[in-house]
Amino acid sequence: MFSAIVIDKTDDQQSVSLQQVDEAQLPEGDVTIDVDYSTLNYKDGLAITGKSPIARKFPMVPGIDLVGTVRDSSHADWKAGDRVVLNGWGVGEGHWGGLSQVARLKGEWLVPLPAAFSGKQAMAIGTAGYTAALCVDALVAAGVTPDQGEVLVTGATGGVGSVAVALLKKAGFTVVGSTGKASEHAYLTQLGADEIIDRATLSERGKPLQRERWAGVVDSVGSTTLANACAATKYGGAVAACGLAGGADFPATVMPFILRGVRLLGVDSVMAPKGPRMAAWARLARDLDPALLDVIAHEIGLGEAIAAAADLIDGKVRGRVLVDVNR
């Protein structure tokens, strides 16, 4: 038996609880992992609170991230004792996830724990930080360079935004963070933000073309914020879009794209192939100061995850939530 957060659903009613689960209930997979840490991401918050139909099967163990040690494996790439990381692949949605002391997964979903990080540090980064690295990689691959001007990070105090600020600063960019939390300016400055703007300047519908300011953008908010970011991006600039915390709509026009050559780069972390995953983790290992993870993340026990998920959806959480599944 092991402990796990379990989501159940009967008719239209969802229930979530910390349960003792028999290992015979684990789903199919060729690698069994003793989990050390998981995290709470925005998607996990939606699943646990039922605010969005993230979980597609029931019962479901949420948690799109985990780090742990392989107990046994029939997959050629992994053997008992290997330290591994899982991000995405529909885990916590259609396959039991990481908010559990034991997981059974497909070996093709796993990557090795980078030597630069402990398991705890890797989950302080989690999908949010890995997504941030994918976004920075996308901007760099699109030709955005520090000499072209400022890079905007929306939702800057969130998990993606926090790591994006730190990575962009390390890469030499002038970073502007957008947040609605005036109390967090010191936090963003510590991460590397050169300037902080109020998210209200981006959340109201603006002109389809605005004064050119951003050489690049990392956006995890979507909706009007993304539309305004695109409208103020410089000629030839690029916008990496990876989230929808502010909504899934995109109330924009084609004008920034056809008159300024702005590129909108969709960034998906769930099904990303192994190559981009490994590149993103390599950037994190090279450019993210591990000491910042103590600032970005705070730790909770597995039994606290349900309440913390509600706080996350209500916008009460800064940075990353690290979950020690063994306490």
Written account of the structure:
This protein is an alpha/beta fold. It folds into two domains: 2-113 and 291-324, Medium-chain alcohol dehydrogenases, catalytic domain (Quinone Oxidoreductase, Chain A, domain 1), CATH 3.90.180.10; 127-266, 3-Layer(aba) Sandwich (Rossmann fold), CATH 3.40.50.720. The chain contains ten helices and 15 strands. Strands 3, 4, 5, 6, 7, 14 and 15 form a seven-stranded mixed sheet that branches. Strands 10-9-8-11-12-13 form a six-stranded parallel sheet, with helices on both faces. It has a two-stranded antiparallel ribbon with strand order 1-2. The radius of gyration is 20 Å and the shape is globular. The two termini are 15 Å apart.
CATH superfamily of the largest domain: Medium-chain alcohol dehydrogenases, catalytic domain
* Spatial shape: globular
CATH architecture of the largest domain: Alpha-Beta Complex
Let me know the average pLDDT: 96
How widely separated are the two ends? Answer: 15 Å
- CATH fold field value of the largest domain: Quinone Oxidoreductase, Chain A, domain 1
State the major sheet.
Answer: 7 strands, mixed
CATH class identity of the largest domain: Alpha Beta
How many domains, as an integer?
Answer: 2
* Class from secondary-structure proportions: alpha/beta
How many beta-strand segments?
15
Low-confidence stretches at least 5 residues in length (pLDDT < 50)?
none
The protein's oligomeric status is single chain
Instruction: Bin the helical content.
Output: 25-40%
Compute the number of helices.
Answer: 10
From the alpha-carbon coordinates, what is the Rg to the nearest angstrom?
A: 20 Å
